[in-house]
Amino acid sequence: MSIKLGVPSKGRLMEKTFEWFAGRGITLGRSGSEREYAGFVEGVENVELVLLSAGEIPRELAAGRIQLGVTGTDLIREKLGQWESHVSELAELGFGHADLVLAVPAAWVDVSTLDDLDAAAAAFRAQHGFRLRIATKYHRLTREFLRGAGVADYQLVDSQGATEGTVKNETAEAIADITSTGDTLRANHLKILEDGLMLRSQATLFRARGAELTEADRKTLAELSAQLG
Fold first, then answer.
1. Residue 171 to residues 112, 146, 168, 182, 183: CA-CA distances in angstroms?
2. What are 41's strand-pairing partners?
3. What pLDDT score was predicted for residue 39?
4. What tens digit of pLDDT does each residue of 8-20 get?
5. According to the model, what pLDDT value does residue 134 have?
6. Hey, what's the torsion of the CAs at 11, 13, 19, 25, to 10 degrees?
7. 3-state secondary structure string, 5-31?
8. pTM given for the model
9. Would you give the DSSP letter of residue 200?
10. What is the C-alpha to C-alpha distance for residues 225 and 229, in angstroms, rounded to an integer?
11. Could you count the other beta carbons within 10 Å of the beta carbon of residue 161?
12. Which helix or strand (DSSP H or E) is residue 91 part of?
């Protein structure tokens, strides 16, 4: 048995992850064509590279099918209830930075805070007969955040596409989404609430808490942790 390391299978996250490990003496790479999800590891023994989508990595860690994985903090906390019982953070990688934020139309001049949103949501329901809609891919995190803020009169609308466009398309009144610069929000005439920062996310190396390990695996993990230190 070998330690399985899950890494995003394409794009900038994969490239930056490869660079991060290379800077610590470990070479990760694809084997075969870009269409093949096979890879190799050089510079450390008994470690196997598994190429997955970033969204799959939390599930595979929680199931113990991989022992290590690189993915965003946002995905871990959204996809895994009580995430700290499933995984532990080994290292923040310093890239893939993004903020999960709550944003409303810029034209809502009287709505700048969560308290304002709470009042606006109650008024919206009284006027329209249904709850104010918030479009998001992050249902768990949004519910937890709004519950903590005391905002209750809303409904979540699932968004798997361009979330920022849902307000313009009149399928939602507000959004909860990831942003790096805020440019796309501004381009769609949205503003972040003053207290609307829900989570700061970045690419992070996680270790599965529930994975079964042999003595050889434990030794490999100790050596790997020391090398990555």
1. 21, 20, 8, 21, 21
2. 28
3. 86
4. 998 999 999 999 9
5. 98
6. -120
7. EEEECCHHHHHHHHHHHHCCCCEEEEC
8. 0.90
9. E
10. 6
11. 9
12. strand 87-92
